[in-house]
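Researcher: Quick sanity check before group meeting.
Model: Go ahead. Protein one:
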Amino acid sequence: MSNNDLFKTLERADDAPPNPYDLFQSWMDDAGKSEINDPNAMSLATIEASGMPAVRVVLLKGLDERGFVFYTNSESDKGKALAQTPKAALCFHWKTLQRQVRIQGTVEQVSESEADEYYNSRHRGSRIGAWASAQSSPLESRTTLQERVTAFEEKFKDSDIIPRPPFWNGYRVSPSRIEFWHDGSYRLHTRVVYLPQSEGVWSKTMLYP
């Protein structure tokens, strides 16, 4: 029986897979086959300096046992929030599969080499866009943005290598909690929470729906 079939009829938390990353990857693989757009889309919640929570959708761009990675402009609202309070929550919701994964954890920037490697793998237009967009700052008009794009296209027109902007970085959410949720009839959902105990070792608890 696969991890996914097992989860539908889970009797006890002890019956869940021991490693949440293996289960998550299995669910992500399923989502890649069933979701029409962006199976790696995730809601990212941060805490602003005022204490107000803020949430938006970003894309998961890296995953290993260190955590979940996304990239953004560090001078954006979320970048500033993470600099102030390096904690975040993530939520994946795959409607076609009736599954959800919630993650809470601490946040740190990825290494320079890791950020460079991902940035250089992006389409040229996306690399230009990273330079052109003063993300989250007021924009006078769409024309202003296009003028900035044109200016950076001109700046880098003779270069195959477009350096990563110093303000554009990757962030890794290292989980302190991962919850898997599977829809059940009459709202009797299956919920299992994983908590890290030591390196590679997790506790598992089933929750009432």
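Researcher: Fine. The other one?
Model: Protein two, sequence then structure:
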Amino acid sequence: MTAGLATDAPEPPPTGAAPEQVLVNGRREWLTRYIRRRLLILIPLAFIVTVAAFGLTHVAPGGPVAALLQDQAASPETIQAIKEKYRLNDSVPQQYWTWISGVAHGDFGRSIITNDSVLNEIGRRMDVTLTLNVAGIAIAILLGIPLGVLAALRRGRALDRLLVTVSVLFMSTPAFALGLFALYIFGFKLGMFPLYGPGSWVISRVHHLALPALVLGLHGMGFEMRLTRAAMLEQFEQDYIAFARARGLSSVHVTVRYALRNALIPVVTAAGLLFTGLLTGSVLVETVFSLPGLGTLLVNSVIAGDFPMIQGLLVIIAVWVILINIAVDVLYAFIDPRVGFAKATS
């Protein structure tokens, strides 16, 4: 037991080190250990994701051959040629090993529809989806947090009730329905935004993606606002807030420096959930606005039975979601070191 404790404990600071430096070095060591442990989680999660993505083609009715043929009649020679091309005559573990070996080298196979590399197809569409999600999360955070703080400061008043109503409205409305409404009003009726397409150059792309990004942002803003309001109200009831006000500190100082800072843990959680939620929501938003992103590519690939593309997209999206969740956990440790310390020693 003693040896195990000695192994996990940080090395003693050098003689004569300043107390501040000792604290900084200790915190850095705990954070490094915590981040390392979180990154190690990627290994089993990535394995589970790849097994699930690979297994989809084998659990489909008729197996991968039926998915490729799409209920079209084919001669035995054609079926045999398909099996040889995709190595379907091998055992399932051998097929998985062949596929995962290619994935490890950046080879997800070739699209059945376009005969182009799956990774190339995903790369061409990644910027649209990434831009939409980053812009959407930025809008949700930049609007949701201040409005949540404002609602908490005006608790029980008319402004608070109005903001809560707006947040519930945006949270309850599906992103695609909000997109259709916005497209009809601001695109078709008012002509302020284009009706479809991503644009061809920088200014044009900003113009084309502004409305769908706003739709995603407003849909997530309601969730961010409600959670920020609840976290701020919880902090306002703490004793340290009363002590800070008794010391004569200004309301802005108490709200921003103390209450908001300690309410960031659930707010960061909401941001991480929003990022993954907007990623799935952008599938329908991209379809509504006819944007060539990963969402549209996934829908078209499912309809066409392009299982190499479906497998590649599932792996990319799943790894994306895992990395976002790990990034949120790491942010916890930076916002509140007690989180990192507790988990690093567990």
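Researcher: One line on it for the slide.
Model: Residues 8 and 98 are 40 Å apart (CA to CA).
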